[in-house]
Fold:
Amino acid sequence: MNGVTGQMTPHWRRRVLDFLRSCVSSPLNAVLTAAVIALALWTLPSLVHWLLLDAVWRGTSVKDCVGHDGACWIFLRAHAGQLLYGSYPAGQRWRLAAAAVIGIATAVAAGSSTRRLGVLSIGLMLVAGSIVVGVLMVGGVAGLPFVATSLWGGIMLTVVIAAWTIVTALPLGLLLALARQSELPIISAIAGAFIDTLRGLPLVGLLFLVIVMFPLFVPPGFQTDKLARALLAFTLFNAANFAEVFRGGLQAIHRSQIEGGYSLGLPRWRVTALIVVPQVISVSIPGVINICIAIVKETTIVLILGLFDLVGVLQAGIADPDWLMSQNVRTTAYVFAALVFWPICFLLSRYGRAIERRQPMTSGVSGAGLIN
Amino acid sequence: MRGGGFGLVLQLVVLLGVVVLVVGIAHNVAANLARLGIKTGFWFLSRPAGFDVSQTLIPYGDDSTYFTVFVVALLNTLLVSLLSITVGTLLGFVLALSRSSSNGLVAATGSLYVETFRNIPLLIQLLFWYFAVVQALPAPGASFHIANLIFLNDRGLFIPSIQFGRSLGPMFGAFAAGVVLFAFMVAKGKRRWAVLPLIALPLAVGVFYRADIAWSIPQFKGFNFHGGIAMLPELLALTIGLSIYSAAFIAEIIRGGIQAVSRGQTDAAMSLGLTRWQTSRLIVIPLALRVIVPPLGAYYVVVLKNSSLGTAIAYPDLILVFAGTVLNQTAQPIEVMTMTLLTYLALGYVFSFATSVVNRQVRQ
Structure:
């Protein structure tokens, strides 16, 4: 009888009923349910009050927030320009919009033509797009005024660091993984040492290393800017992390695939390019997404170097004497930062897990333990 | 050799490239150091440092050397890592149990925690705990307190401590002997009684020296607290933030281990007449540990590395004190950075080694 009603009740209704039944299925579960409900009743109302009901939505200065025990959202409106673009000159910000459009268009074009074009054409497309984006942002040529990277900031800088790191570290990581798995002992040893050393270091340490030591590594008089040095550290560190993911992917490929390629008379490099690499990439996607999530979260570390990414701008804003009067300003700033990063990381992780579920072969190379 | 002549040429080219890069860098470094008038060498380590460190676990004064600073910073890094690993693992265990609960609401609460905290950058969480929570605590005069024994205020957390006096040496010896005996008995397979010497030996010494042992309770005098153990605001915020963040990842590792024990194993155990508790203790936990230990050990290294983010809230760890202040004061970037980074690598290897030892125990 249960089976009959089970078929007749809609799927979601049965799930709701199962859920409710599980909450009171035993005395212990009933007690736990009561405890969770009590916790929710205790925290949720004050959260709603702080975030919405008692929050300050109108006004221009900290004086409007004093006396309200709620979020001081006007702090964000007062710093909106900084939060988006840092100190990028107001008259030049159209260049950032243009760069964003070109960057997204290039990425979409490259992503949608993976079946029609070869790796080389896609690579060239990405390089060309990156150069146009770079020229637009830095300027100094074609009548565009030069904008020093020390003026870059806000969400724009966060996006630049994340995009740069993913675009550069992915191919480098794939190369490193292939080098490490290669049967050529010297190349394998060099790649292995590089990967293991970088993965053993904290990113903060590596950033300090690059910031302090890089000027010593180059010929006297050769100037590099701070952002470029930080980007170098991000690329190297995450290339090593990607290499570790791809290594798992390489090990998941069956030997017979490679031998099949040889038996068709394909030369070694074509077996690698046509049989190994495409399979490694598709098997490694969940792991790659995990590293991408880590990269998005890591971008915030540039704060320690004195660069003004989103968090850097917020830190500078709350230290501003004009906004010191209300403690709620600080909390508002951090809650806002969390609200910016959380959906990106959450959706990425959901996407990765969906792919993992669709191809069971990928589980085991999802890079668990690499994520931080 | 596989790869033939082309492979050999490729290897030589890569090797040559790496050698040229290294020699080029070495040449540039030498030229730059000469230009800046920096003499390399580790002699600076024996010079007095002459600056203050806010948290020192070993005696430290005005005449302490740069090497002492290094040890102080290293101990601070280890302290916050071990604290966060302990709290994070306990919290992660509770979360893993709640996520595997048969109660849908409890499982959903566990998921909410995990999905919330692991998808917000650690740095933002640390800044929140330090600037928005710990710094917003009341001043010492208006501390939160539990029975006037434990105090929480914007200067940190103050808890009672035990003053060992003359018994400190013997106590340490008894504890060390206890650890050795514990390891020996575990290796011999007498796990059931292995904890006994660990407790009994220090206890015996404590009873013998009971006149020298006293409680030290924090007391508000003048402007701050004296006595007891003080946990600095930076340490407090870093421990809270790092533990809460790590617990989300550790919960997933532990849950993965519990799920990996197949239903058939537990059903078989129950059908043999074992109780639920016996099934958990004898079947599920030993099997789950085999899956849990390797990734958990790897994650502990991640916690150690993540503790370096404490630099952002001025926690005096290896990066802030040694790679920061000492590097700036001594102008010996090569030596200081080498020591710092090699220390992290070495600690990582120590953690990995400990993991493999535990793993071998678990697999027996």
